[in-house]
Amino acid sequence: MGRGVWAMSMKQVSMTTRKRGGILIALLCILAATLASLYVAHRNKAYPSSDSASLEAEVVHVASVVGGRLIELSVQENQHVHKGQPLYLIDPEPYELTVKQAEANMALATAELANQKRFLAVREAQAATARAQLSKAESNRALADRTTARLAPLAAQSFIPWQQYDQARVVQSDAGLSVAQARQQSSAATVAIGDLASAEAALAASQAVLARARYELRQTRVVAPADGYVTSLRVKTGEILIPSQVLFTLISDDAWYAVANLRETTLAAVSPGQCATIYSMIDRKHPIEGRVNSIGWGVLTTDSSGAGRALPLVLREMDWVHVAQRFPVRIHLVSPPPLLMRMGATATVEIRHGAACH
């Protein structure tokens, strides 16, 4: 019986020991999980990352400011083009005719200006003659005034006949009338001279019309504004285009970016110029070096959708709990492999760490 009691005691001690060991192991597991969670949270804040970023590039919506029939299309869908390379041609004939008409109008305006210059010279000569006639009339009146003044005392003392004095008075009166007429003619001739303002303005207007016509003629030939890839091309020659109609989109390949929507709680660790590692989903084996270019200053939420329609819309993932808002972080890719660059492709972004930042 003593042996049975001893066995039961040993069994209870063993069970108590195992229970304590299990509790200790559970506590250690909880502690390890807590420490791992804290480490992960700290690492996520210190080294923000996103596996839902997208690759982007600048785009140009290719269009001409003039309209007409498309007679030549020099590119095809997904073709790579270089800056200055011809893309398409709009029928230039109507614009060539407009240029010829503008050139003719400018020639008429130039000829009219030359005629007005000749007429101006004639009117200036006539005004000079009128001024000379006025000067002559004033000299004759002055002479008549002096003659009358000299003859007046002689006629009063009967040294000369009164008829001679009367004739001098008539000459004096006629000289006064001649001066008045000459002054009026001189004033009229001066006013009639005018200027070349209207003719010069007409010539300037015709020159502007010609410059505009030549500009529109040049716009019938559209060239690539930058190096890039042709996309969204859905027309053929013969299409009638209206002014500023987008024919296709050109994806510029001189700079590529990764845009990652990062939680606002991690933005404190992000600043422009920081290194980033980017993996394109096309081939995740090749790390791509990047530099943080900018951080978005605003996003469009569902609560303020009517406030600013130009802001990027970033939806929250859940509505029943408080979810941190996300802001777009733009990262410039440094010498990315061309075959991995696709507009809108998914990418993974790691800020301040990763293979490309070592």
Automatic annotation (TrEMBL):
This is Multidrug transporter subunit MdtN. Residues 256-351 form the p-hydroxybenzoic acid efflux pump subunit AaeA-like beta-barrel domain. Residues 58-246 form the Multidrug resistance protein MdtA-like barrel-sandwich hybrid domain. It is a single-pass membrane protein. The lineage of its organism: Bacteria, Pseudomonadati, Pseudomonadota, Alphaproteobacteria, Acetobacterales. Transmembrane segments: none annotated. PANTHER family: MULTIDRUG RESISTANCE PROTEIN MDTN, P-HYDROXYBENZOIC ACID EFFLUX PUMP SUBUNIT AAEA-RELATED. Pfam families: Beta-barrel_AAEA, BSH_RND, HH_MFP_RND. It is found in: Membrane. InterPro entries: AaeA-lik-b-barrel, MdtA-like_BSH, MdtA-like_HH, MFP_Efflux_Pump. Its main location: membrane. It comes from Acetobacter suratthaniensis. Residues 128-182 form the Multidrug resistance protein MdtA-like alpha-helical hairpin domain.
